[in-house]
Amino acid sequence: MPEGHSVHRIARQFAVNFVGHRVAVSSPQGRFAEGATRIDGRVMTDAKAIGKQMFLEFDNGLWLRVHLGLYGAWDFAGNISIDPTIASANGRMGQTNQRGTDLGGGSGDDRVFDDAGENSLHSIGAPRRTRLRMAESEKVEAEITTFPPEPIGQVRVRLLTDTAVADLRGPTACEVLDRAEVDAVIAKLGPDPMVDSGPEAEERFVTTVRKKQTSIALLLMDQSVVSGIGNVYRAELLFRARQNPHTAGKKVPVETLRELWCDWVRLLHIGVETGQMMTMDDLDDEAYRKAMASRDDRHWVYKREGLPCRVCGTHIVMEELGGRKLYWCPKDQK
């Protein structure tokens, strides 16, 4: 499932390529036909993300709400331009395993290639006719010869301008809402550092957690407590804080909760800027390049079960918690 940094980066690409344009909206598979007619032919006026949810506004006051969930993905085709605020970091489109990143914000010989040997700054281009898929661990790209291309697979909704097209498949949620309904959805979400990283958001997070008997590991994944954290960030944040994942929220020291919040602010901004869930600090240039080239060298504990902890050497543990895999070090996170 895409974590918060990915959805923010996707929203930024909509802002660059669709906001301000009149959009033809359809449902090739037919399941979203009624919703599509409500926003078909309208101008997109805003694109924003809060946590794992994205909201696209149209000039008739209606919004398209999308939650990709476990299986959702976007395909983009056409003259897709890169958001300059993130292209300066590495020109990537926001998914954990998409290809290539720059070291130090460059755009030439310092470009880093990942295990697949593909660099997304080059392959996406700005602008050029491409087709690419945005999901948590998948990107498929191919040149197109006609525009718009035919939909591929079960496309729930297609958004089409004169120069760009976005196809959505397999989302958990895809619905048209009015402003009041959008506000109601957002009101149920915890704070998102990309929307508000100030002291009130921090205090809201701390106060909410301190009222809960639920384990901190489950609370960090609860989108009503804090927005955007998924399985990777959850494991890494807890390790970085040396916090036992099973401690009840109300028993976690306030200082630790504030540290977790501030660390989430930092890691989320890094993720949005680079497109990678980079959670290791103080790497030299060689180690940084190695980490960006392979997720095996990018995280402290995530997917490292049975391997020695990078700090103490104790084997990392993996267990099921709330239907998801939890990774942690039983010595450093006592």
Gyration radius (Cα, Å) is: 20 Å
**CATH architecture tag of the largest domain:** Alpha-Beta Barrel
Structural class, from helix and strand content? Answer: alpha+beta
Strand content: 15-25%
- Low-pLDDT segments: 87-111, 113-130, 135-139
Compute the average pLDDT.
84
* Shape label: globular
The number of helical elements comes to: 10
Determine the N-to-C terminus distance.
28 Å
What is the ordering of alpha helices and beta strands?
HEHEEEEHEEHEEEEEHHHHHHEE
Corresponding CATH superfamily of the largest domain: MutM-like, N-terminal
CATH topology-level fold name of the largest domain = N-terminal domain of MutM-like DNA repair proteins
Biggest beta-sheet profile: 10 strands, antiparallel
Helix content: 25-40%
Main β-sheet, spatial strand arrangement: 9-8-5-11-10-1-2-3-4-12
Number of strands: 14
**How many domains, as an integer?**
2
CATH class descriptor of the largest domain = Alpha Beta
Domain Formamidopyrimidine-DNA glycosylase catalytic: 1-91
Cofactor: Zn(2+)
Domain FPG-type: 300-334
Keywords: DNA damage, DNA repair, DNA-binding, Glycosidase, Hydrolase, Lyase, Metal-binding, Multifunctional enzyme, Zinc, Zinc-finger
